[in-house]
């Protein structure tokens, strides 16, 4: 394996990363020091080594979880608006480093440059949102049925939040969690994906520097890099109060059960098998552009990627012609993700390529017609030969009888297409999978819109009209239903999961007042 240092030595220097010695993948509030195995972080475009990382050991987990608990005890005493001021400082520091962090995401995760920067912007946005919340979060006052009684719901800091994040959004998803957790008075322990440790180390160095410069313990945002064993250590730790997990349905199911068995809170953002529906009255150019972006952005590796497309029979031929044309032009722009002209970067790992190829085989076995793609991509550029490249793929099904592959999430640029005759039928198709993250309807008809967002409409956590299934803003709660898991991150009232709630009844009379008319003379 070659070491590809020259292009990123300066970038790594600015981000406090080393290209010569192992980067320490643990921060326990006192030192950046890990005692687990040393691994390489790989550039998915070239297959070359970016840098090495020393991961956490199980002893590191124990020490770090205890430090996060101690840090929580300090942090919970700080007034919420003062916590918000710290988050505002973190926001400023992240925004200042945005171009560098964006470039690092592109190098280590493989997403294209504008998406790398957009991901860091998502952290900045959610931090802004959290700063505002720090002056508004609280409970409600409820009218009491008893004289001289006062009922209020009070939110207090919850404790330690374990954030286990995925490779595809290696910075933003921690941003969602840490911004809310911090204004709510919690400390966090971050266990990033094993293949994106550099993004986590660089980001957390910025956060810790802000915390410590102001005089707070750095273990308010602790870090543990490593694989499944380290993640399991965080979940099992008696110190953790809420697990926020983004990843596979299989792993999420286990984590959800484990957390429930210990009466811990959990917030799960698991699979997505998102559909777009195009009605005959849709603005077709808009729908075409939206669906192309949603299916191919991040090379199909967003939880919110459009994986299924249902076209009304009357417009299906015309739409498919336009879609194949768009795919052909996008396919011309597969390349180095840092090149501003590139629209499609590599898959993140060889494992992703293998899953893609297995899905293509299944499509063929199950009667799908590959309209474009369906193969690995051979690069002329020698430097990209060892990267993980596949072609954007459209599979068309004249019938969905016996087609199981469309019900599975394949984290790759594969779009399954079929037709329908009525909106009811399309909604049934949309809802007819285990997952329930995101969805989109393209129509200009108001009745269709209300049907779609109403009781008999999409069963997903994210429901769009005339917009892409992916690319949600931070303002709305983010998450899904059914096997996508439960809980919400980011905007809306997602913060309510990061606090512990008490309903407090205060009697300011001198008499015992009993509710429900009970007397106990
Ligand atoms: C994810 O893929 O896990 O809505 C997060 C989007 C992004 C976040 C995706 N804002 O596509």
UniProtKB/TrEMBL annotation:
Subunit structure: Homotetramer.
Class in the EC hierarchy, top level: oxidoreductase
Keywords: NAD, Oxidoreductase
Pfam families in UniProt: Aldedh (PF00171)
MF-aspect GO terms: aldehyde dehydrogenase (NAD+) activity
Oxidoreductase as UniProt keyword: yes
UniProt name for this protein: aldehyde dehydrogenase (NAD(+))
Source organism per UniProt: Papiliotrema laurentii (Cryptococcus laurentii)
């Amino acid at each position: 394996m070659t070491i590809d240092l020259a292009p990123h030595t300066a970038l790594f220097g600015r981000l406090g990363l080393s290209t010569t010695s192992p980067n320490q993948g643990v921060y326990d509030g006192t030192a950046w020091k890990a005692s687990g195995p040393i691994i390489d972080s790989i550039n998915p475009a070239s297959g070359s080594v970016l840098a090495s990382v020393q991961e956490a050991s199980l002893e590191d987990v124990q020490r770090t979880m205890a430090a996060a608990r101690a840090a929580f005890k300090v942090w919970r005493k700080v007034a919420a608006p003062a916590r918000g001021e710290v988050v505002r400082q973190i926001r400023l520091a992240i925004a200042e480093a945005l171009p560098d962090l964006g470039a690092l995401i592109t190098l280590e995760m493989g997403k294209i440059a504008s998406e790398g920067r957009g991901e860091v912007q998502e952290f900045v946005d959610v931090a802004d949102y959290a700063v505002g919340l720090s002056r508004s979060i609280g409970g409600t006052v409820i009218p009491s049925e008893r004289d001289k009684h006062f009922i209020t719901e009070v939110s207090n800091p919850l404790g330690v939040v374990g954030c286990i994040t995925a490779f595809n959004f290696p910075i933003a998803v921690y941003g969602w969690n840490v911004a809310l957790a911090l204004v709510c008075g919690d400390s966090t322990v971050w266990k990033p994906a094993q293949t994106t440790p550099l993004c986590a180390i660089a980001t957390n160095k910025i956060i810790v520097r802000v915390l410590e410069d102001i005089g707070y313990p750095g273990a308010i945002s602790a870090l543990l890099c490593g694989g499944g064993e380290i993640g399991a250590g965080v979940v099992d730790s008696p110190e953790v109060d809420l697990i926020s997990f983004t990843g596979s349905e299989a792993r999420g199911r286990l984590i959800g059960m484990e957390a429930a068995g210990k009466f811990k809170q959990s917030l799960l953002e698991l699979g997505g098998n998102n559909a777009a529906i195009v009605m005959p009255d849709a603005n077709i150019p808009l729908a075409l552009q939206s669906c192309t972006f949603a299916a191919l952005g991040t090379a199909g590796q967003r939880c919110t990627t459009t994986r299924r497309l249902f076209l009304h029979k009357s417009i299906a031929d015309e739409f498919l012609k336009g879609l194949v044309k768009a795919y052909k032009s996008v396919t011309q722009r597969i390349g180095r993700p840092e090149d501003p002209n590139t629209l499609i970067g590599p898959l993140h790992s060889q494992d992703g390529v293998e899953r893609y190829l297995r899905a293509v085989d299944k499509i063929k076995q199950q009667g799908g017609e590959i309209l474009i793609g369906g193969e690995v991509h051979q690069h002329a550029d020698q430097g990209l030969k060892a990267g993980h490249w596949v072609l954007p793929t459209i599979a068309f099904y004249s019938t969905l009888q016996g087609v199981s592959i469309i019900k599975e999430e394949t984290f790759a640029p594969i779009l399954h297409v079929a037709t329908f005759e009525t909106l009811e039928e399309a909604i049934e198709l949309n809802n007819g999978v285990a997952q329930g993250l995101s969805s989109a309807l393209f129509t200009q008809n108001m009745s269709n819109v209300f049907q779609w967002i109403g009781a008999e409409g999409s069963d997903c956590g994210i429901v769009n009209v005339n917009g892409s299934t992916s690319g949600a803003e931070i303002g709305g709660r983010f998450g899904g239903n059914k096997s996508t898991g439960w809980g919400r991150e980011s905007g809306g009232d997602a913060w309510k999961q990061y606090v512990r709630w008490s309903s407090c009844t205060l009697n300011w009379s001198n008499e015992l007042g009993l509710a429900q008319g009970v007397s106990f003379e």
